[in-house]
Amino acid sequence: MLTELEAHLEPDEGRPGTVRPGGRTARVRATVLRAAGDALAEQGFDHLDLAEIARRAGVGKTTVYRRWGSVAGLVADLLTDMAEQSLPRARTGSVAEDLRANARLVQRTLTDPRQGALFKAVIAAAVCDARTAEALHRFYDTRIAEWAPCVEEAVERGELPEGTDAREVVRAVSAPLYYRLLASGDPLDEAAADRAAEAVVAAARAGVYVVRG
Predict the structure, then answer these.
(1) What pLDDT, on a 0 to 100 scale, did the predictor assign at position 22?
(2) DSSP state letters, 76-128
(3) Does one domain contain both 60 and 157?
């Protein structure tokens, strides 16, 4: 029996390559991805089950298996959606303020009860699952590309030296925050975020991130 959501799908919707952005299939995708994110945050990657996610989402198992095929495929799409839904970069006109905003956004995300648990689960899964690792790399590449113009514009304004590697600067802001989340267990608060941003700005102004040769 078709679920309420599936009953509204047009014949071609749900097949790979036929999903129309904003169409009815998009609503099914959003519901399934929300259920997958909840399950991942609660149970971790090893306990994910497509049938259980279908039950949580209120859609048929065949819809989930046909659309995503595997847990790794579903997690990859979840990361794609997270990258698409993430907040846009700051535009304050100051590299110090822009990178502070970036650090605080990362800090809020990692300390959010759902999002923090979700990221821990995905990172753990990426260690042993190549498809999840690839999806995680794409997620961070998307986010770094979103924020890199903050640094590029600072170079144009003369705030930072010519040749500064914008992507390396952005990576360096969040690195100590992820270290606190995954390794040290030290407090991951707004003060830690501000210190991370301030340290990177000081290093960038000193030319630490200038590409040599």
Answers:
(1) 56
(2) HHHHHHHHHHSPPPP--S-HHHHHHHHHHHHHHHHHSHHHHHHHHHHHHHHHH
(3) no
CATH number for the domain spanning 169: value is: 1.10.357.10
In a domain, residue 148? The reply is yes
The DSSP code for 210 is: B
Rounded-to-integer distance, Cα 4 and Cα 207, Å: 58
Tell me: do 105 and 168 sit in the same domain. Answer: yes
Nearest to 101 by CA among 113, 87, 90: 90
Q: Which domain covers residue 171, as residue numbers? A: 83-205
- Beta bridge partners, 164, equal 210
Query: What's the CA gap between 58 and 36, in Å, rounded?
Result: 12
Residue with tokens 């169409």: 23
Phi and psi of 41, rounded to 5°?
A: -65, -35
The pLDDT tens digits of the residues spanning 59-111 come to 999 999 999 998 888 988 998 888 888 878 999 999 999 999 999 999 999 99
The CATH number that applies at residue 63 is 1.10.10.60
Rounded Cα distance between 72 and 77, Å, is 9
Q: Are residues 118 and 162 in the same domain?
A: yes
140 contact partners, CB below 8 Å, separation of at least 6: none
